Structures are given as structure tokens and as C-alpha cells.
Amino acid sequence: MNKPASVPEHFDAVVVGAGFSGLYMLYRLRQLGLSVKVFDSAGDVGGTWYWNRYPGARCDIPTTDYTYSFDPELEKEWTWSEKYATQPEILEYLRFVADRHGLRSDIEFSTAVTSARWDEPAKRWRITTDRGKEVRCRYYIMATGCLSMPKSPDIEGAGRFAGQVYFTSRWPHEGADFTGQRVAVIGTGSSGIQSIPLIARQARQLTVFQRTANFSIPAHNGPAPADRLEQLDEGRDAYRHAARWSRGGVPLEPTDVLGVTASESVRQERFETAWEQGELFGILNVFADQGVNPASNDIVAEMIREKIRSAVKDPETAEALCPKDHYFGTKRPCLDTGYFETYNLPHVRLVDLRKHPIVSITEDGIETADESFGFDAIVYATGFDAMTGALVAADVAGRDGLSLEEKWAPGPSTYLGLMTAGFPNFFMLTGPGSPSVLSNMTVSIEQHVDWVARCLEDMRDEGLETIEPTALAEAGWDQHVQDCGAITLYPTANSWYMGANVPGKPRVFLPYIGGVDAYRQACDEVAAQDYLGFRMTGPGGARCRDGVVRSMQPDVAMVLEFVAALGLPPMETLSAADARALMAATAEDRPPGPEVGEVTDGVIPGPAGDLPYRLYRPAGPPGGSRPLVVYFHGGGWVLGNLDSDDPLCRDLCARSGAVVVSVNYRHAPEVRFPAAALDAFAAVQWADANAIELGGIPGQLAVAGWSAGANVAAVACQLTRDAAGPHICGQLLICPVVDSDMTRPSYEENADGYILTTALMRWFWDHYADPADRGDPVAAPLRGDLQGLPPACIVAADFDPLRDEGVAYARALEAAGVPVRLTRARGHTHTSVTMVDVVISGAPVRAEIGEALRDFFPSAEPPGM
Ligand code: NAP
């Protein structure tokens, strides 16, 4: 019996969208015994596959993988006919799933949700629809898809055209017949590239208006690949499991071949194999470094450009079709069938909008800056307001009436891409900040739905009714999402991943690029840690375990994983000689660091014999004088030498524009305290006395060091002050050892697992100084008189046992009236900041260090890089 319209219906959950994610969400919620209503503005199930019916529409992940895995029987009953199924077949599949599980009875089609308001006292959402209906629910779940809100045509005169207008994203159900017509297609993303060859088959004339040339590789479509089918037949569960724990949601062994170091034949072989395979994740995995290293990326990009040049006969058209303004992969690459060859047809023409911009769309065609075109039909393949568009447009207001639109005005903010603070019980499936569009969507959808379902089940079991992320957890996740993007080339492109395709949209990297596997791990950890970062309330009580699930820089975490996999013995269990050999061996294959103008080796007289030094002169005209930095390497007074810190010294030289003189000092246990410190003091005096010969500017001298090298640098500053000279302009102390008291919290927090361990630090001290000497300021400069010391830049890394003593030294110097710049190496370990060209996220920290060094000097020249 129908209820009167004025009485709102109540459901446990309302889901918006009946595509892949909405259908599975409904299925899982029903399994939990919850009452559910699904709304979709479409006339049937299908989501994106309901709307995008343009000719040539297909998936771009092999259909064997682009499929549900939750129902093994369903998998047996459905066989995909092609490697990349067409839109009608995928839509048919989703209808089949809906029928098989009787899902339609809970779905209200042709009904759009127009607003949602959180009712705090009732702890319910109030939802209204465009049919004037109001419903109430406890959980409001957006299954609205990432690419569902078409971008409105932002072209002058778009409304004026009197001919037929089509949008690839809203294609008419009855289809379109272009036979005998003059057709324009605007846009050359995936939708344009898939539809253009088929529109060309019908049209009398086809003109393609291209703003940005796009990378596309041939799909080599056909029957589903035999090897994939075999794998599935042999072990479907194992295959699906591998997909869930892969980087992109399709099982694939990530390569470790680096583009920059691979031989030409290896490059060719790997590229051609990926080209022939015709799969997105294959072509994105030619080289391990193509997503992060411009030089490696350009190797793949140029190989694709060569393929385009050989496919397109007219050289000018070919060149216009070659993408040159973004790195390969940083805009979604396309899979095509005969796209580039289409331009060899006599009736097909490309208009390069970079050279011939559209001035206006007119009543009968399109006017560019230098030509008027008449058309019978215009097809807009101009894309979507991706990832946030549909969510924001749904008019959601959370606690205190704050709307999602207002909250996300500076860019979306989410915890795990699943929820956002201030919007209790509001879930997003594949929301911004989750792998979504960078992954096989079906795998990511199932993971999100399963997580939400388990969360609701756990809440029910524990008598909890509301859930919402904390501000801390959300800010931590937002930061992690940006950190993951920042070490890649992705943020450099004007892509929809960056929101750059929609005028006025904030430029933020929207998806999570850390990988489906890493993401799943993070979500599982959150749930396992009592829903870390979520606040939950209900009759069962209120609880909140606040925290940040990932705060380490992603590339630092990768290095640690790599090191852990090597299974090396803990250094503190080795002899000094073996520890030195191990350190030298691990440094063998690392990148050399940046080029500098000149590197020369020499010796200086030390208090007990010669000390080797290496001088780094910045690039620039010969003979020019520069400020001078005397640098001391790290290694706990036991390890290290001029080679160990060579890449870092090059980096410091290039960034600061100073001459860097790296001085080796005597090591323990052969020569113990205070030899290293006294050598450092002598080196500073010698450098000052020989400034002109070294190419330095007299009076412009700074000292620098890392770890134990920073210890001796800090001590040298104190000894120099006590000796009344020479004048030191500044001290750069990177993760310094400044105290022998190992009771500060960072020794506990970061005791193990971050390369420099508390045990190793103890081993270093034991090698260097007798316990009775460790309170001496020459060993522990924090205990010295800090008045009148040079300005300092101190770098303290989050995951360093030495973090707190570095911070303590900064505070103590400040208290003594010394100007201090404390640089927090966020998400870094003791060693990672110094790993030049290995840990990309260290570069911004070293940029700050370079700036601090330049600031030490009164008349520093601009850096050479
Ligand atoms: P898109 O990738 O955003 O491409 C839109 C195209 O329209 C771009 O070439 C864009 O140029 C152009 N454009 C936008 N506004 C314009 C303007 N005012 N003037 C001139 N040109 C303009 O959109 P899409 O092709 O619909 O694809 C979006 C995403 O959907 C894909 O990246 C993919 O993830 C997914 N998709 C997948 C498939 C599949 O194979 N399964 C098929 C279709 C779509 P600029 O690049 O200069 O902005």
C-alpha cells in the first residue's frame, strides 16, 4: 500500500546510484538485514554504462577483470565476449546482476535526489527527491561514480547551434545516425578517441577539434586473452585475490627496470611488448620510474609519438596529434581502435585549437580564429566534473548546516576517500582520496562496499549509531594523498585528476595514487585499530581512537620496505669494519647526485696528521668567489667518509651556490673522543685561513653536518666562539646528535625500524666516547654554553630517534638568543632526507636547507640549480 506523500518513509540506508557500486552496496546492505532504498535518475541500472552510449563506448580495463567477484556463481554464468566489452554488453551484464539478485525492487529509477540534510537530534538524514518525496535514513551512501557529472560546455555560443547536438556522456537511447552529415567532434579524451573512428564511418565530413593531443595505444581488441582465461580457470579465487592486492586492481608484476638505465634494446623490447598487449597497466609499467622521472617518461612518450607519426600519413596532422605538453600517464591514456588511422581518411580533418582557437559556436557551425565551419551535428566529448562534481551537486548539508560545497570549496577533504568530517553517517564509494579512477574500478568498488558493510555491521554489533572522521585523521589522510601525488609527475598536468579541466575548480590531486594494495592495507588497519580516526556514538557508548593512519612519506616507506626485504643484519651486531663494508656496499648503486661545476680532492693539516677533503664548486664562471661551507659527514663517528655523503654535498653545493668543502675526520673506535670534534675545529680554522685559495669569500663561512657530522659541526661552532674566531655565519645541523641522554621520547617512539635505531645509536656512543666523557659539551653540545653561537638551521625528522634532541637544541639556542630556523622533515627518517634522487620527497626539505644556507651569507649569489 502506498503511503501518503507527506509521511516520510524511513530506511536504514539510502544509496544514490544504481551502477556497479550502488548495486553491490544494495546487495551487501540487504545481506546485513538493513532496509535500503536506492535512487537513480536513470531509467534503469547501469550508472555510467546507462548514460555513455556513444558509438565505440567500451571499458578500458579487460572485461575479465572489469567484473564483480563477490558472487562465484555469477562469474560462472557470465562470459564476456570480448577483451574489452562494448557498452551494451556491460549494461546487459549489470541488468543480469540486478535480476539475478532481485535488486530492482529496492531501486527507484528516474528519481534524482535533490538534497540531503543531517538532522542532529534525530541522528538521521532527511533526503528529498525531485518527485517531491522525503525519506529519512540513518546511513546515506553516495554511489554516484567518479565520472558522472558532465562538464557543461564552456565554449562561447554553445547554446546557439541550431543543428543536432550530442554529448557522449548523455547519448540518446535511440542512437544517432550521421549518414551524409557534416559532423564536428569537440574533445579528444577517451570518449572522443573511442567514438571518432565510428562517427567517421557514417559522416560525410568529420572535423575533430582538438585542444590537447592525447596519448592513446591500440586496444588490440578481440576475444578475451587466452592466457588470462587460463589463469582464471586455473584459480579464480587466487586471481581475484591477486587483483585485490595489486597496485592497480589487475594482477601485474611491477617492473624494476629503470628507463634511464635500461639499454636501448631492453627499452624497445619492453615497450613493444606493452604496445602489443594493448593494456593500460602494461603501458604504464614499461619502466619502474616512468611515473616519477621525466627522462624515463620521455622515453616511453617518444616511442608512442613515433607510433603516431608512422600511423598518420600527413606529417603536419601527425605532429599535431603527438602529445607534447604533458608527461605520459599524467592525463588518463586512452585505448583505441584505429583512432590515429582515421585521420588518413579524406573526409576527416583535425583542427588544432592551440593554433586555431574556437571563437564561437554559431547557429550553423563553429568559427575559429581564422575559419568558419558549417555543420549538421556537433558532438561534445568534453568530459566531466570528475570525482567531486556529482557529490557536490547532490546538495548535502551536514552538521550545523555546513554544505559539502562550502566545505570543499578549497578542494575535497576526506578520510580514506570514504567519509568527511562534519557529515556523520555519510559515505562515499570511490570518493576523492581513494584509488578509484587510477585503478580497476570494480576492484576498488568492491573493496569500498565491503569496508562500509563491515563497518556498519561492527557498529550494529556494538550498539553504535553514528560514525564520523576526526579532523586530525582527515587532515592526515589529505596530506598523505597529496604526498603520494607529489612524488609523481601527475600534479604537473592539466588533467581532470587535478580538477584542471573545469574552470575555477581548485587545483588538487584528487585520487589516491599509493596503490590499491597500500590503500586496502590502510583501510584494514583503520578498522582493526578500533576504527582509528573515527568518532562513533550510540547507545553502546561513545568512542574515538584519534590518530593518523599514514604519516610517513610514501617513498620513505618504500625504502624501508626495500631495506627490510634485504634482511641485513642489524649494524650494531657487526664489527666496525663490517659495518663500514656494509654501508659502502649499500651505497654502490645509488644515483650520483646533481652535477656541479667542479669537484677536487685534497688534504688539510689536522691536529694529528693530514685529513682528506673534497671540494665542490658550483657551476658558474671560473674564478668567481663564493661563500664557503665546511661540511662533516654522518655515520656515528664510526662510519662514513667523503664518498658516503658525496651526493648530499653535490646537492648542498648546487642548491646553496656555495663552495662546499667536505672534510673527513678521524673515526672511532680507532681514535675516540674528542678526536673527531678537534679535527672539525681545525678544519674550520684552516678553511677560514685559506678561503681565497678555496674560491671562497673571506668572512663568509658556514659549517654544516649530518648526524654525527652535525655533532662535530655544532661543537666546532662552540670551540670557535671560545677561541674568538674565526667568524662563522651559520651552522646547518641535519638530524644532529647533540646530547648523550637517550631518554627523550623520540628514542622510544622511533627506537626501531627506521634504519637508525636506538640500539645503533648506543653502539655509536660506545665506540666514540667513554661514559664519563659523554656529558662534556665537546661530546654533547646541548650541554654547553650556547650564548653567542652562529645562527642555526636545524633539521629534525619525524621518524628519527634523534628528533627530540634536535628540537631541544633549537629551543635552547633560541633561549640563548641565537636565531634558529627549525625545519621539520615531515614523514622522514634520520637517513631519508639525505638520499638524493632516491627519496623524492626529501627534495623540498633540501630546498629549504639550501635557502637557509643562502640566508646565512650576507651577499649570497643565486644558486646554480
Ligand atoms: P576527458 O578525458 O576529460 O576529455 C575531454 C576532452 O575535451 C579533452 O580533449 C579536452 O581537452 C576537451 N575539452 C574540454 N573542454 C573543452 C573546451 N572548452 N574546448 C575544447 N576542448 C575541450 O573526457 P572523456 O573523454 O569523457 O573521458 C573522461 C574519463 O572517463 C577518461 O579519462 C576515462 O577515465 C573515462 N572514460 C573511459 C572510457 C573507457 O575507455 N572505458 C571511455 C570514456 C571515458 P583538454 O585535454 O585540453 O582539457
SS content category: alpha/beta
Specify the overall morphology: globular
Biggest sheet overview: 8 strands, mixed
What small molecules accompany the polymer chains?
NADP nicotinamide-adenine-dinucleotide phosphate
The percent range for helix content is 25-40%
Radius of gyration in whole Å, from Cα?
Answer: 31 Å
Mean pLDDT: 96
Unreliable sequence segments: none
Compute the number of strand runs.
29
Distance between the termini: 75 Å
How many helical elements? 26
Relative strand content: 15-25%
Strand and helix layout:
Elements: E1 9-16, H1 20-31, E2 36-39, H2 48-51, H3 72-77, H4 87-100, E3 107-108, E4 113-119, E5 124-129, E6 134-142, E7 164-167, E8 182-186, H5 190-202, E9 205-210, E10 216-218, H6 226-234, H7 236-244, H8 264-277, H9 280-283, H10 294-311, H11 315-321, E11 334-336, H12 339-342, E12 348-352, E13 358-361, E14 365-368, E15 372-374, E16 377-380, H13 389-393, E17 396-397, H14 404-407, E18 426-428, H15 441-461, E19 466-469, H16 471-486, H17 516-528, E20 534-537, E21 543-544, H18 554-566, H19 576-586, E22 598-606, E23 609-617, E24 626-632, H20 646-656, E25 659-663, H21 675-689, E26 696-706, H22 708-722, E27 730-734, H23 745-749, H24 758-768, E28 792-799, H25 803-815, E29 820-829, H26 843-856
Parallel strand pairs: 1-2, 1-6, 2-3, 4-17, 6-18, 7-16, 8-9, 8-16, 9-12, 10-11, 24-25, 24-26, 26-27, 27-28, 28-29
Antiparallel strand pairs: 4-5, 5-6, 13-14, 14-15, 19-20, 20-21, 22-23, 23-25
Helix pairs in contact: 1-15, 6-7, 10-11, 15-17, 20-26, 21-22
NADP nicotinamide-adenine-dinucleotide phosphate (NAP) binds next to helix 5.
